[in-house]
Structure prediction request, 226 residues.
Amino acid sequence: MIAVIGGANIDIFGYPSGDRLIRRDSNPGKVYFGMGGVGRNIAENLSLLGIDVSFFGVVGSDSNGRYILSESTKIGIDMTSVKIAEEGEQTSAYLCILDHKMDMDVAVCQMGITDLIDKDYIDANFNKINSADLIVVDGNLKSEQLQYIIERFSHKKILYDPVSTTKAMNSSTLLGQFYCIKPNGLEAEVLSGMKIRTLEDLQKTVAYFHDKGVKLVFVTLGDKGT
Prediction:
């Protein structure tokens, strides 16, 4: 079993039906709702590969939270340990506006509920998480949350996805304690303090992570591959 600890949210995407996105105006177009959250998405992909996976995170006691629990369970993710927040706490949401080329123009992410993945929650689920062969954590977790998970499961292999350049900074002092990391090029630059312009730069950056103690490093480079 693989344990995934991280974010689960509703994704809302909007894009114009015309040949351009008009800023500061109402654009006729399409709006798409779906499940998201880096941690939850990782759990979904693992499940689709036929791997036994349990997700650990938080949703609100609202319709979006119930939707995430129901639909994720249908595709084979064990969601029985997900914490349901008290009334008034909204399920995380990611709102993204795309341009006519389907590239992101601007986005707003509401992930505050993820703070409820606290020490008490981790302790309450210790035995189940500890039974996992691997633990995956995402960058929606803050530094103190990541640190506690690392301390409690120091005997386990922990894989880390930084999520974004901003959130990557949450792990800047913890890098050597992860077995594996999967940053994209920009995240790798932020974490290493090195610019990646050439293959040689990339190799030096990966060597930096290895020197820190990371065993496996996968740097994704968009259409250039990994």
In short: The CA atoms of residues 206 and 217 lie 7 Å apart. The first strand starts at residue 2 and ends at 5.
